[in-house]
Design goal:
alpha/beta, Nucleotidyltransferase, domain 5, five-stranded mixed beta sheet, 11 helices, binds 5'-O-[(R)-(carboxyoxy)(hydroxy)phosphoryl]adenosine, binds zinc ion
Length: about 325
């Protein structure tokens, strides 16, 4: 095998509440992707409990890795590199994945590659459409981050803007929690919003000073104030109107950023990219503007290890292995 080009990369993801492992070939083809969700463990607390998350990763990660290897139809000896999320995320959770990845890389005598979780989310669109052209504009919307990123090429990233307060997913989760709809809030609101009227309540659309920046905490407060003032308001209408306000801002700012930059394609990434209304509106807006677009399948939007393996593949191409004494960084920035 060519030492500069790992063909089969094992990806490991444990940054938050999903324990995941995947095998990706040539940074393009997903051979297997296994995700074990901890939602049931955290649901009764209304959010992720870091201590529970770390312990649960430790319990299930070996089996998740074994499943990923088995489902890919390969043996351990076929793996050419091990890539793992090193941040950002919950430190106790990150350390479980990082320690496992280092141990496996040492035992198998293959390169260890430490990957940024946010950069990994950018790769979901490329896994969905491997021939997508650079520069790509990606709207990265997850539980902890909301940002517009231009990907000029592998490892060449420019952040155009990001949220000044809450991330979009955080707003979904907080509104859901306030309304008693459970955790994670995004899928619960997405479901209920289908029964509501998105024009029922005119919630504010925040305009940040810089056009590519976002702000969602005022919207979240507006929803809470509305429900306090009108407790009889139909919850489906409330969440449909809230979701519409989030989607309006996300789609408008993304298309405006695409207009202002020389990009060949526009993509979505991160857990909120699983939102059905965002997907529908994003595609309609791109089609209306005649823009090439890509949105990953739902299981590539939320946390998974296929995106980590893909990001690891291309990172290894550029800069080789990571140092085995490098640690995890809970607040690792994208650039
Ligand atoms: O990317 P992700 O799985 O984890 C992070 O890196 O944060 O994103 C999780 C976030 C949560 O806030 C969750 O509520 C949100 O993605 N989410 C959704 C949907 N599915 C997940 N938000 C809106 N609609 C959805 N269908
Ligand atoms: Zn994520």
């Amino acid at each position: 095998m060519n030492d500069r080009r790992p063909r089969l990369v094992l990806g490991i993801e444990t940054s938050c509440d999903e324990t995941a492992a995947a095998i990706v070939e040539d940074g393009r083809t997903v051979r297997s992707s296994v995700v074990s969700s901890q939602i049931d463990l955290h649901a009764r607390f209304g959010g992720v409990v870091p201590e529970i998350a770390g312990r649960a990763h430790l319990q299930v990660l070996p089996a998740v890795i074994a499943d990923a290897v088995g489902e890919a139809g390969i043996d351990d000896v076929d793996i050419d590199a091990v890539a793992v999320t090193v941040g950002p995320g919950l430190i106790g959770s990150l350390l479980v994945g990082v320690s496992a990845a280092k141990a496996l890389a040492l035992v198998w005598d293959v390169p260890f590659v430490g990957v940024n979780h946010l950069e990994a989310h950018l790769y979901a669109s490329l896994l969905a459409e491997p021939d997508l052209e650079f520069p790509m504009l990606v709207l990265l919307v997850s539980g902890g981050h909301t940002m517009l990123v231009v990907m000029q090429g592998h490892g060449r990233l420019e952040v155009l803007g990001s949220t000044l307060d809450d991330a979009a997913g955080e707003a979904f989760d907080k509104v859901s929690r306030y309304l008693g709809l459970g955790y994670p809030g995004g899928p619960a609101i997405d479901r209920l919003a289908r029964e509501g009227d998105p024009t029922a309540i005119a919630f504010p659309r925040a305009v940040a000073e810089r056009p590519a920046d976002f702000s969602f905490s005022g919207l979240k407060t507006a929803v809470i104030n509305h429900v306090r003032r009108q407790p009889e308001a139909d919850t489906a209408d409330v969440v449909a109107s809230f979701q519409e306000a989030v989607v309006d801002v996300l789609v408008d700012k993304t298309l405006a950023a695409a207009d202002g930059h020389d990009v060949a394609s526009v993509c979505l990434g991160g857990g909120v990219a699983a939102n059905s209304r965002l997907r529908e509106r994003f595609v309609a807006a791109c089609e209306a503007d005649g823009r090439a677009w890509s949105i990953p399948d739902l299981d590539l939007c939320t946390d998974n290890a296929a995106m980590v393996a893909a990001a690891g593949h291309w990172q290894y191409e550029r800069q080789g292995p990571s140092a085995l004494d490098a640690g995890a960084d809970p607040s690792l920035p994208l650039t």
